[in-house]
Amino acid sequence: MQEELPVCRLLVQDVAKTYRVYDSPQQRLKDLVGLSGRHQSVEALLPLSFRLAAGETVAIIGANGSGKSTLLQLICGTLTPSGGTITRHGRIAALLELGAGFNPEFSGIENIFLNASINGMSRADTESLLPRILEFADIGEHVHQPVKTYSSGMYVRLAFAVAIHVEPDILIIDEALAVGDEAFQRKCFARLREMQSQGVSILFVSHSAESVVSLCDRALLLDHGQLLFDGEPKQAVGLYQKLLYARPEQRDEVRQGILAQSAAPTMAPEPEPASEAEADHPLHPDFYIEGLVAQSTDYVENGASIEEPFLLDEQGFRVNLLHKGKRYRYRFAVRLHQDVDNFFYGTLIKRVDGVSIGGVSSAPPQQASGVSLPAGSRLTVECEFELSLNAGTYFMNAGVYGDTDQYSGFLARKLDALVFKVLPNPAETATSYVDLGFRCRTLSRA
């Protein structure tokens, strides 16, 4: 009878990592022999705690230098924490930085056996798995050559193939898949979903927002070694991007806002009262749900702000229940706080899992629009479109671009500015998310 898996695969409690940076080798030597060598303490990771349940996939996101790789190395045991405890249940397989766990002088075959033995596999078990590992890696005769001759893509192919076949209870991936080709990435993500269904726990570091939202159950946001947020992936990605695109002088304020938000109880967003502009367009009695409100995230303003986003049907009613094939207008207001040159705006539609469906900008992003506007201007803009999406729930972003005296790029961004649903049609034959206009017909019949 198979042993029941523990609910908690990994328990990280108040784990921290501090490095000592010495003024000179002599000061380091003094410290080694018990004398007091002069040094500075660098906190790579501030005390943090979290759990990883069996079958759960958790993303770790943050800018370079935020402590992601340090945390993973502590979990894997390649680094020793300066404080706190890490409790592991089960076998861990990890893809850390390129080259980790492989001997560059050994051939691919030799490294397969080496890595498998490190993960507790017997030689007999590894030999039985070898054909499957080689088939998944698909690097041909290169497997008999030293790993030091491999490209980064070949290394990742082999390392990932070994990691998924040593039957791990916890799989750790540190951005390794970013260097693989698209076909191999697709195969890897399909295998990760299969492992999820088998109850494998996964820790996943990636800079791909879409991968984090679509693959993970939770996300941890790290910044300067501190855990700022632990929660729903889509919200974590929005907060990370808000921090990433903030001006340097605004980042401390954004950090404190994220920490305060994490400490506060999660509340459902309240529908805002109709503005003067919205009052000119009444709610549709049949195709507007008052409670269908997005939990939007405003990026730090860089000279502009976005207000009052809503959708209008062809009769001028505000709607959030839409029909495929009909035309709609996405409207929002833009308020400029500084003089702006080369002004333009745009929108992007995303699925619930964060995958981009399509969007538009009012001018080619790579070209100067030539539109100059003074500070204090308030514009109402809209993007008209014919809906070709199939039934489902979708989100719309809003963005404003331009040049000010201090900044060039996004002046304001609103993530998940609004949410809408496309109503189902029982006679619909199109599949997936976007109707590409396929028409099926039988040309002959024997």
From TrEMBL:
GO CC field: membrane
Pfam families, sorted: ABC_tran (PF00005), Wzt_C (PF14524)
Molecular function per GO: ABC-type transporter activity; ATP binding; ATP hydrolysis activity
Signal peptide extent: none
Assigned keywords, A-Z: ATP-binding, Nucleotide-binding, Transport
The ABC transporter domain, residue ranges: 27-249
Matches recorded under InterPro entries: AAA+_ATPase, ABC_transporter-like_ATP-bd, ABC_transpr_TagH-like, Bact_Polysacc_Export_ATP-bd, P-loop_NTPase, Wzt_C
Family: Belongs to the ABC transporter superfamily.
UniProt protein name: ABC transporter ATP-binding protein
